[in-house]
Write a structure and sequence with these properties.
35% of the residues lie in helices and 9% in strands. The protein has helices at 9-17, 32-37, 60-68, 82-96, 107-113, 117-140, 203-211, 216-219, and strands spanning 24-28, 45-48, 100-104, 150-153, 180-183.
Length: 237
């Protein structure tokens, strides 16, 4: 897999805020997430696929999870269990206190491709519990409590018929439909916002940058705008 020829939003945040390499991090279940996160290898901390955390920052729990990832037989061999990825990221959050953390999970996609709608529903419950744990964790940590925003979204939709719901590709209706959820001190408590003007995946980066007080136009003038509903009225564009 080729890296992007331009800096990603994670690289931009690190550079603009003058952060150390461990203050921006990616944890992904599929090894490709490491390549997708940055235009240059080693731009910041990454742990994706079947990979251990380096010994110099490894905690006892990270070491345990590093061993466990090779014992759990994931549905597809391309990626490790999301349970390992999420819990490694959570432990890294506690130990390293990053300013920006990207967690990329993929088992909902795996179960759908396997046409196991029953397991997909089970996994969604697991994912909901991950979100609850993550939110409760950041609210329990000094420096994060009351100051942290979570942005949750997906990279693609799926087909909408009994035949093609397992797939996502150009020409499959529904594949372009995604969702986004935002919670944090700078986001009004709006609940589910619908109907609402169409927003795009390209708007996510600009929204993230506004939470850091950075100018999205300086990152990429051609990127989408911040999502107004995710921002307080006095900070919306």
């Amino acid at each position: 897999m080729k890296r992007y020829p331009h800096p990603t939003v994670l690289e931009f945040v690190r550079r603009q805020l003058g952060l150390g390499k461990r203050q921006v991090a990616t944890f992904g279940s599929w090894e490709g997430f490491a390549t997708l996160s940055s235009s240059e290898e080693g731009a910041f901390f990454t742990n994706a696929g079947y990979e251990r955390v380096p010994s110099e920052i490894e905690t006892a729990r990270m070491a345990y999870l590093g061993d466990l990832q090779f014992e759990i037989m994931a549905l597809w061999e391309e990626g490790r269990s999301d349970a390992v990825t999420f819990n490694l990221a959570l432990e890294y959050l506690r130990a390293q206190r990053p300013r920006l953390l990207y967690i990329a999970l993929d088992e909902s996609d795996d179960w759908a491709h396997a046409r196991r709608y029953d397991r997909l529903l089970d996994y969604i419950n697991v994912f909901d519990a991950y979100l609850k744990t993550l939110w409760e964790t950041v609210q329990s940590l000094d420096g994060y409590s009351g100051r942290t925003t979570l942005i949750v979204t997906t990279d693609h939709g799926r087909g909408i018929t009994p035949t093609d719901w397992v797939e996502h590709d150009e020409g499959i209706e529904g594949s372009a439909d995604i969702w986004i959820a935002v919670i944090g001190p700078d986001t009004p408590d709006r609940g589910e916002v619908a109907p609402y003007p169409t927003v795009h995946q390209a708007d996510v980066a600009a929204t993230l940058l506004r939470f850091f007080g950075l100018d999205p136009g300086a990152f990429n003038p051609e990127a989408g705008p911040p999502i107004p509903a995710a921002l307080q009225a006095d900070s919306a564009p």
